[in-house]
Amino acid sequence: MRILVIEDEIKVANFIKKGLEEEHYAVDTALDGESGLYMSEVNDYDLIVLDLMIPKIPGLDVLRRIRSNKNKVPILVVTAKHSAEDIVKGLDSGCDDYLTKPFEFKVFLARVRALLRRERVDAEPILKLADLILSPVTHRVTRGGKEIELTSKEYGLLEYFMRNPNKVLTRTMISEHVWDYHFDSMTNVVDVYVNYLRKKIDKGFEPKLIHTIRGVGYILSPDRP
Amino acid sequence: MRILVIEDEIKVANFIKKGLEEEHYAVDTALDGESGLYMSEVNDYDLIVLDLMIPKIPGLDVLRRIRSNKNKVPILVVTAKHSAEDIVKGLDSGCDDYLTKPFEFKVFLARVRALLRRERVDAEPILKLADLILSPVTHRVTRGGKEIELTSKEYGLLEYFMRNPNKVLTRTMISEHVWDYHFDSMTNVVDVYVNYLRKKIDKGFEPKLIHTIRGVGYILSPDRP
DNA sequence: CTTCTATAACGAGAATTCTCATCTGCAATT
DNA sequence: AATTGCAGATGAGAATTCTCGTTATAGAAG
Known about the structure:
Two copies of one chain form a homodimer. In chain A, 39% of the residues lie in helices and 22% in strands. By secondary structure, chain A is of the alpha/beta class.
């Protein structure tokens, strides 16, 4: 597995390189955006680790230009910036995961492994419906610009809805996707979670997005009577 | 998708056939073990639904004989028998899932879909280590013949251990397999669950099976100082 | 052998997930 | 329009999962 690390702080770059090499990855480093971009073009990497704060070409531009080359290599963004704005821009520009510095090396390694293993998600990294926005990478959700906190099951349910908008989803379909297959449909957990979700994403907002189709299931749609 | 239903009660057989056909499966029915076995040999099914209480050749024998033909078709056993013994025998004989009658049709359908989708598990359906036995299909665990109740995370952790016996597993390996990849290893959940598991499968039993490898992780092994 | 330090075990309580019983309201029928 | 039966909504509480702070212990160093 070949990995490119684009990072200007030499200490950090070497630390990452050394750590990855101990795990038997072949690692190249680039100390600025220009050389990083160049290396990404001439070599075929399995993963690129990209710092956003780098000289010559800013990280986000490197990201965009790698993607505009139709290069689908997984990119793990590493950034000291905590602001949601930068992260969202990163996601919009096509990074696959991100980590804010400082990070524990084992957390970093876990993400690297995950990205190398993960089947490429060619879909756009942001899902939108009306003013509801969901980012599958960060599991972050906003409606009308307001951040909405969801638990992990609630998130899973919403993501499934967002991936199938304007389509009626039966309880069976939902339970098979959001829960696992041994799921026992005797209970009404799905209803309960739809209820939880409604309280968080529809209550206090217009239009309502989750609608009940009596006798069939539920639908996520902005234009419904 | 072609499905064979081996079931002697004509009413039940027709009910299942009709229901599956509504879902666009092609369904054949056999009313006894002999014809069922014969049909399984001459045709190539994607799934077999097998009642255990059938005339001519008992269900369990049909199951064993299908398997002894090296036929790996998924088999969903349907049985009125509630006794653990029959179910365990069924699993030992190579069925992939089972349902006890009476069942809700939608539950049945969910299982059918799951089996048709599932990648074939060629491994033996029972995992053993010393007197600890785990059945991945039913998620049932016993030690020294005594049934042990595990929650789903505890079960997941134990299954991972049982699939990798006598091998040191790091916390990272565990968290990536038992939890999902966005898992944040800042916390000690893994330790906590190992602790829960020890209380259930080691406390009051000898030898101890879960051992700590200081600085590395944990190992499941019957012979350790 | 004793002390020290890093690592693991554990307890307690918070948050999430799930179950179940009851309530509400739609829509079919009279 | 009123009745009724049933699907869905909801509240309450149980079970599970997770977090975090404290205590215990192994192994290294003195």
